[in-house]
């Protein structure tokens, strides 16, 4: 298969690129390298491009035609919740505008298969231990709203232009499949805690007054390799003739509090530090835990790696001294 991967130099995208390359697929990566790193890509072709730019549709269309692309995996997006609260218009321009430009290029070039990087942030502040895809979607921050609008745009495109697509709603991602592909951007909890440990500073927990078991936010943590495998399954189902727009959670179905995750990291790092609690950040829901039943039924995917593997693989990669942002 010949695949274009937007955001393929990023943390998650680069794992998918590696898996595709390992099985012999041809891959082209489109990335502006704002949070990605070219050294993750090996000999895969890199096209450096801002998807939200006015010239993006024509440039992407040219790449799709030149490389005879069969399918697109779309990871490129901005993803910091607090930043989206501060800069909502920019987030809409980047995430929704970038997707619209990609869909325009795909339609013109006649490429009709898409796997979209969505987010559990579309659910908002949900209650319960197993959020299904049928749950109401009420995102509580601009980032989540851009992902929900992205799904809606893709749904419209499947009706209007014959697109076949899968949207994967990620829960919280961690770990490393290979040390050189570790999460370097310090935007997610695990690398943020590593950064504090390296500096001899206590890890930060934002809010301990949520209605959860220990007062801190509860999240569903999935290993990045499991998440990457879910993309491969989605891509292969599209290639096998899956039509319409499938929306699936990607998670383990098990919730872990932020405090418990921080303590697991500190134990793995053998650090004597203790977490410091700060006030809540705006836009953080109390608890978001997946029901992964639908993706298991429809795509045959299940998470295989647990919390200890997430933390251990991330810490081992950190100790190798892979370059950081």
Task: Fill in the keyword field for this structure.
single chain; alpha/beta; UDP-galactose 4-epimerase, domain 1; three-stranded mixed beta sheet
Quick recap:
The protein has 325 residues and is α/β, with parallel strands linked by helices. It has helices at residues 11-22, 56-66, 81-86, 88-109, 142-160, 189-198, 224-239, 258-268, 293-299, 307-319, and strands at 2-6, 26-31, 45-48, 71-74, 113-119, 164-170, 172-174, 204-206, 218-219, 221-223, 245-250, 256-257, 276-278, 287-288.
Description of the structure:
The chain has 325 residues and is an alpha/beta fold. The chain has 2 domains: 2-173 and 221-250, Rossmann fold; 175-219 and 253-319, UDP-galactose 4-epimerase, domain 1, CATH 3.90.25. Helices cover 39% and strands 18% of the residues. Strand 5 (113-119), helix 5 and strand 6 (164-170) form a beta-alpha-beta unit. The longest helix is centred in the N-terminal third of the chain and has 22 residues, at 88-109. The two termini are 32 Å apart. The mean pLDDT is 94.
Number of strands: 14
CA radius of gyration is 19 Å
How many angstroms separate the termini?
Answer: 32 Å
- What fraction of the residues are assigned to beta strands by DSSP? 15-25%
The CATH topology assignment of the largest domain is Rossmann fold
Count of helix runs:
10
- Percent helix, as a range, is 25-40%
How many domains? The number is 2
The name of the CATH architecture of the largest domain is 3-Layer(aba) Sandwich
The major beta sheet can be summarized as: 7 strands, parallel
CATH H-level superfamily of the largest domain: NAD(P)-binding Rossmann-like Domain
User: Rough shape?
Assistant: globular
Q: What is the CATH class name of the largest domain?
A: Alpha Beta
Mean pLDDT: 94
- Largest sheet, spatial ordering of strands: 3-2-1-4-5-6-11
- Provide the structure class: alpha/beta
- H-E order: EHEEHEHHEHEEHEEEHEEHEEHH
Unreliable segments of 5+ consecutive residues = none
């Amino acid at each position: 298969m010949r695949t274009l991967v937007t955001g393929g130099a990023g943390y998650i995208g680069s794992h998918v690129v590696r898996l595709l390359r390992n099985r012999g697929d041809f891959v082209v990566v489109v990335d502006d390298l704002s949070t990605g790193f070219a050294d993750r890509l090996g000999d895969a072709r890199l096209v450096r491009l801002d998807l939200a730019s006015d010239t993006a549709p024509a440039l992407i269309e040219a790449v799709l035609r030149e490389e005879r692309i069969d399918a697109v995996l779309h990871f490129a997006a901005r993803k910091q919740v607090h930043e989206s609260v501060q800069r909502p218009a920019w987030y809409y321009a980047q995430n929704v505008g970038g997707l619209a430009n990609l869909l325009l290029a795909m339609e013109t070039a006649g490429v009709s298969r898409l796997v979209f990087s969505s987010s559990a942030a579309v659910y908002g502040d949900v209650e319960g231990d197993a959020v299904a895809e049928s749950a109401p979607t009420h995102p509580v921050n601009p980032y989540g709203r851009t992902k929900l609008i992205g799904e809606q745009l893709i749904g419209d495109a499947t009706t209007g232009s014959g697109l076949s697509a899968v949207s994967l709603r990620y829960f919280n991602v961690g770990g490393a499949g290979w040390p050189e592909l570790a999460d370097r951007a310090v935007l997610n909890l695990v690398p943020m805690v590593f950064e504090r440990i390296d500096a001899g500073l206590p890890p930060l927990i934002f809010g301990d007054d949520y209605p959860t078991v220990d007062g801190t936010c509860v999240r569903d943590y999935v290993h990045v390799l499991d998440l990457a495998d879910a993309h491969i399954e989605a891509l292969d189902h599209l290639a096998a003739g899956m039509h319409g727009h499938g929306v699936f959670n990607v998670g383990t179905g098990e919730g872990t509090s932020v405090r418990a995750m921080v303590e697991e990291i500190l134990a793995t790092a053998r650090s004597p530090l203790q977490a410091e609690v700060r006030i809540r950040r705006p836009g953080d829901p109390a608890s978001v835990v997946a029901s992964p039943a639908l993706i298991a039924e429809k795509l045959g995917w299940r998470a295989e790696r647990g919390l200890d593997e997430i933390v251990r693989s991330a810490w081992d990669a950190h100790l190798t001294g892979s370059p950081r942002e």
